[in-house]
Predict the 3D structure of the following.
Amino acid sequence: MLKLSKLTIAVAAVSMMAACGKKEEAAPAAAPAPAPAAAPAQSTVEVLHWWTSGGEAKSVAELKRIMQDKGHAWKDFAVAGGGGDNAMTVLKSRVVAGNPPAAAQIKGPAIQEWASEGVLANLDETAKAENWDTLLPGVVADVMKYNGNYVAAPVNVHRVNWMWANKAVLDKAGVKAVPTTWPEFFAAADKVKKAGLIAVAHGGQNWQDFTTFEDVVLGVGGTQFYQDAMVKLDAKALTSPTMTKSLETFRKIKSYTDAASPGRDWNLATAMVIQEKAAFQFMGDWAKGEFTAAGKVPGTDYICAAAPGTANAFTFNVDSFAMFKLKDATAQKAQADLAAAIMGTEFQEVFNLNKGSIPVRLNMDMAKFDDCAKLSSNDFVATAKAGGLVPSIAHEMAVPPAVSGAMKDAVSQFWNDDKMSVADGVKNIAKAAATK
Ligand code: GAL
């Protein structure tokens, strides 16, 4: 539970200042704002998000433009920090202080938790007028609803189980084929190391460690094992030999990262691949937003491939915005316009072209999208049919934040402490998964 009442305003305010003060390194400024719309602003819509990297900022600038075109003033409430932990801390403090933003990037089971606090606005009127029930996959619509009412608007579908590779680095190292299994991956990584380059660009933050970890569990254990261990949190699966093998594989990956990885932001790790300093990165397809912003072309400059052993699976991460209850009628109108814009075809196309994700709205024309997005779109449909579509834990799609938080800490402790035995790592992760 969020336990808003237990947060003191003072503590929250301090963390808010700390989080706001943190700047994501080398995040280029958002694209210049377009000229203000001719119509006078009807209302100011304040939107909390954590999209501050180059590709992310370009994406959110499109939402701002669309809202300004509708005559609304946009108040940007960006809190740097990939994965959104900082943003969630700041959000809690604002809500506790009785001053929520109009909308906030909230996703997965956290939507239910916020709704159960009674602070979210009902979006049913917009959803009905815009036919959301027919335009969304059922699994996504369910997450956006609380007690049958829409309380959040979905933006996109990110695939998490991607491996990004720089083509020139692979050529230089003599890696002929993109690895599709973990043994093949380690053979390729050895070649890159021998060529004097970094094999794996990694950002040592707990959500990034876990992004790699869940790829490994999926690749080593397969979809059913992933479901049992990571989604159902089955104690038997969590302590099985397959989990031991997963941790061994996970630890081995670390030996291919550079010494400067602790604390590194994800987009700086992506930049290492873009700049031919590193061969591979395990990251969701927001990384593609960075390649795109740098003018790189998939297939020519870089490769997108499913993480080893995961080609028949798809770990999904759906971004969404929840709206907070506001009293003012013009503010409510702005929220309705925002919700409608988010699900509109214009936004779904232009935002996702920049963000690296695919539209969440069904039956969108994919003509303008690149091969990585087309592969993602096909795999999303195929895995949904065949049972390989699974929620990402690292990106808060699967289990309540208290559980995923504890699991992330346990996984990162194992990653950071080379002396911890695999057996202890397994035990600690299983214990964290039992968090109530
Ligand atoms: C994810 C989010 C993505 C992307 C990423 C890095 O949690 O869903 O949209 O922004 O964090 O910031």
The longest strand covers residues 44-49. The chain is about 50% helix and 15% strand. The pocket of beta-D-galactopyranose is lined by residues 50-51, 56, 82-84, 158, 266, 286, 317, 319, 395 (CB under 6 Å). The CA atoms of residues 38 and 65 lie 13 Å apart.
